[in-house]
Amino acid sequence: MSLKGRVTVVTGGARGIGLALARGAAELGSDIAVIDVLEKPSEAFGDFEKELGVRARYYRFVPLSGTSVTDPTGLTGSFETIVKDFGQIDNCVTAAGIVHDKPFLDTTWEEGAHILEVNVMGTMMSAQLAAKQMRAQKTGGSIVMIASVSAGTALQTQRLNIYAASKGAVKSLCVQLAVELAPLGIRVNTVSPGFIATEMTKGLAVTRPELLAVFKSPPLGRIGDRADLKGVVGYLLSDAAAYTTGTDVLVTGGVHAGLL
Fold first, then answer.
1. How many structural domains are present in the chain?
2. In the chain, which ranges are continuous DSSP H helix?
3. Is 105 a domain residue?
4. Dihedral sign, Cα of residue 185, residue 252, residue 162, residue 9
5. Phi, psi (deg, nearest 5) at residue 89
6. Spatial distance between the Cα atoms of 250 and 231, rounded to a whole number of angstroms
7. What is the pLDDT of residue 216?
8. What is the CATH classification number for the domain harbouring 150?
9. What pLDDT, in 10s, does the model give residues 80-100?
10. Cα separation of 34 and 73, whole Å?
11. CA distance 133 to 135
12. Where would you find the membrane-spanning parts of this chain (predicted)?
């Protein structure tokens, strides 16, 4: 499961799940390029070079339109700069995404469109740009897209309607890309987390305190930690998963099993 000598791009890696996955790849020896819209990444990002001895650079994505985090021209420029700086792209983790917890009957067209634009189109464009570089290199590679347990299950306590639809689209995109990109030696898989402690889930717990009990409801008895995802993603990025593509890995503490 070594990633030494490789370059891994992580979208949405300034904090939260994306940051944890970037660290996981760095712990396996990969150089790291993080793209995010935040002005600067978490202080923990600086530990990658200091503690792990890998190259790590942060690329703040400022949409040219000023409104959309999926501006294709700006995103293309970010990937081009990464190639100039690192010389290659071997892996890509699409962790950029936003959550929407609101009753379906109150959800507006604009809110739904924004969720789909970020979670689906942002994922598609990032995967495409990474795959184009991998094709040019003729080296193959691995793309891991972050989906969600909500793509296949529903909880009465959460109103994840359009968010769940967006993550279902990510899972379907994975299956299609896995077949289409296989001749290029590019593997594509998804990871579907359950309840994971992040800045977003903390925000939900503040606005909806009744969810605190829900977050402790998985059969394993706790909300997941971001580090719980590192091993799975590291495996999928590495040659240990050389024969794994088109697969969704559920990391939910048993939530999905309890809902079957």
1. 1
2. 16-27, 47-52, 72-86, 109-116, 122-137, 161-181, 199-207, 211-215, 230-237, 255-258
3. yes
4. negative
5. -135, 120
6. 13
7. 67
8. 3.40.50.720
9. 999 999 999 999 999 999 888
10. 17
11. 5
12. none
